[in-house]
Amino acid sequence: MPPSLKTTLATIPLDTCVYNASGPRTGSGQALSKIGASSAGAVLAKSATLTSQTGNPLPRTWHHEAEDSHASMNSEGLPNAGIDYYISTETIDEALSDTSNSSSKPYFVSISGKNIAENIAMLEQIHAKIKSGETRIKGVELNLACPNIIGKPIIAYDFDQMESVLEAVSKLPIFAVDKIPLGIKMPPYFDGPHYDRAAAALNKYSHVVKYVASINTVGNCLMIDPVAEMPVIRSKGGFAGLSGRAVKYTALANVKKMRELLVDEIDIVGVGGVYSGQGTSMMDVGDCLR
Ligand code: DHB
User: Fold this and answer.
1) What angle do the packed helices 116-131 and 159-170 form, to 10 degrees?
2) Which of 74, 96, 103, 201 has the fewest Cβ atoms nearer than 10 Å?
């Protein structure tokens, strides 16, 4: 018998422990339906803002596969259809339309507001939707790690700001009263004291933070096209978030370190560089994978 890949995330049962990350190819109902139809254990939508936006100029994604180098980069700048779209009955219907049992595959929304007020406004909308009877939204991922917004630093690299956001959202009825699981998308850390500060902030809110997804892209990387002699990505002088197999080592270290530092009530989703079954070595130190 093959080994079971079932797991739970924030007590939510998943048929398989692998699912998608929020990012490119998660922005439309049609794109999400491909994840719904796959054996992914859950469907996670693109990080939303309060209203729709088109994002950064093209080219904004890059993928490189060679014998000695495998990497992707993106600086999409949060193109998305707005929170309304990702919580609409129609979008969730479409995302889950090809699943064998459309009410059994958990659907997660991701939010990445421009400021605390925008995150609060989106959370209130999500809460209202759940209160109106939408039972398929099983959790909310708050992205504190987007590196691609021009003029906006990565929130979770500013620990005071990170705590202010956690403090504000932790009081909202969606989490404080109705106990919808809150996940936090984290950037990669590279040094002990930063891990300590980040984990301490998360642990302080473990009554509402039920999982951590580590890691988001490695922010502000650069690739130059040697023929065009230009950055492969157009915005921010080519500076963009790195993902793909190149980040596996960073991701693995972050999952390991977070598991050591976070309280047991906070699950960990290992994200980044998972390419084959061997990527599941991340499972040895975390709980779930993307
Ligand atoms: C984008 C990139 C991210 O790494 C992220 O977490 C959210 C959005 C983007 O550029 O669209």
Assistant:
1) 30
2) 103
Which tens digit of pLDDT belongs to each residue from 56-83?
999 999 999 988 889 999 999 999 999 9
- Range 201-210 average pLDDT: 98
Q: Which helix (H) or strand (E) holds 205?
A: none
pLDDT of 284 reads 57
Per residue in 206-226, pLDDT (tens digit) is 999 999 999 999 999 999 999
- Predicted confidence at residue 199, as pLDDT, reads 98
Annotated catalytic residue 17: no
Question: Based on the number of CB atoms within 10 Å of its own CB, is 227 exposed (0-12), middle (13-18) or buried (19 or more)?
Answer: exposed
Q: How far is CA 234 from the centre of its chain?
A: 23
Atom 4 of ligand 1: nearest residue by CA position: 146
Residue 18 has what DSSP assignment?
B
| Alpha-carbon span 280 to 19, nearest angstrom | 12
> Rounded to whole angstroms, how far apart are CA atoms 221 and 203?
30
CA of 217 to the centre of ligand 1 (A): 8
Cβ-in-10-Å burial (0-12, 13-18, 19+) of 49 comes to buried
Q: What confidence tier does 146 reach under pLDDT thresholds 50, 70, 90?
A: very high
Q: Which residues line ligand 1 (CB under 6 A)?
A: 47, 55, 74-78, 112, 143, 145-148, 216-217, 241
DSSP reduced 3-state for 83:
helix
Are the beta carbons of 143 and 110 closer than 8 angstroms?
A: yes
Asked if 33 and 95 touch (Cβ cutoff 8 Å), the reply is: yes
- Rounded distance between C-alpha atoms, residue 114 and residue 48, angstroms: 10
Please report, for residues 160, 203, 279, 283, the alpha-carbon distance to residue 261 in angstroms, rounded to integers and kept in the order given. Answer: 19, 9, 22, 16
Tokens representing 233?
């990505």
